[in-house]
Amino acid sequence: MEAELEAVILAGADEEEIEHIILHNIFIDRGITHTAQFNLENLPDEVIRLNFRFERSDLHRLMAVLRIPSEIVTITRNKVDGLTALCILLRRLAYPNRLCDMVPMFHLSTQSLSQIINKLISVIMEEHAVLLNNLNSLQWFNREKLEYYAQAIHNKGAPMNNCWGFIDGTARKICRPSENQEEYYSGHKRYHCIKFQSIICPDGIIVSLKGAYPGRRHDARIFRESGISEELVQKTCFDTRRFVLFGDQGYGLSDVLFTPFHGRMEDLPAHQQSFNSAMKVLRIAVEWGFQKVISEFAFVDFSKNQKMLLQDVDALYKRIPTNDGKRTVRLGLDYAFVDNVYGGDVTNQMDIMS
Predict the structure, then answer these.
(1) Is there a cis peptide before residue 336, judged by omega within 30 degrees of 0?
(2) Taking Cα atoms as reference points, which of 347, 331, 292, 323 lies closest to residue 58?
(3) How far is Cα 199 from Cα 163, in angstroms, rounded to an integer?
(4) pTM attached to this predicted model
(5) Which residues form the DDE Tnp4 domain (predicted)?
(6) Buried b (16+ CB within 10 A) or exposed e, 162-198
């Protein structure tokens, strides 16, 4: 035990992990292996889809796209294969169940499950977080794709032909923090929350997810602080053509962002009323994108489990992969995981093929 303690202390383990090692050596028989007995191949297809939100074959493809290593090793030397670790994480996110509820399926202690989840989140975020944080990291995101998106939105009734996507903020309710409560309290929502700023394309791809920000921040302030405006200028403004996003009135007009005309609908001229009505219908797509995340992975919508000081709430939300139409709405993934046919509201609304 002494050698194990020394190793984890040098690795920067916290008090909880050190305590786990001590208790593990006191109460658990040393002959018990850390190898998980979980076997995905023994589960029926319907159980896999229900518990992990993906089909059997897609789990293997998701593991390849995420470049998850073949073996996950935690700071306390728990070892599981990469596919098992992915299933543990997806099961945790699929529903607000307790770790102890997952023990019968994976045959691991709650401490081991927690460490595996945290380790895999760390691996995925280290590898793929840049894809969410900066549009310049998306090699596929070019003028040709912007033209494709803009045409799809225009074909569905948008008055302009250069709108390629939609921007909006979402507030995720959290457990009331013991520190900085006022910073995380949203007077508009009337609860404690963190906010994310998302950009969604007409094929359901979430190409940017900035956050998390304290709940009291306004969308316009988040837009300024996120640096997304500069990224949009670099990626969507060309000498002969400029592409724009569409967002709500709180953002304000800019070279890269359009908003509805201000004023009561009945007081606006006919052409402005027509513009607002058309874009309101299309903008629903971004709401569906947010809803898809929490409907498939309800854990992030259960505020009592979203404890800022006890877990990385930001990373839990960003790392979620969900399916929309034939492509995956991927928070943190690249542009490669295709041909999922689970049905998607966004792609159906836009009549666009991924």
Answers:
(1) no
(2) 323
(3) 12
(4) 0.73
(5) 167-301
(6) bbbbbbbbbbbbbbebeeeeeebbbeeeeebbbbbbb
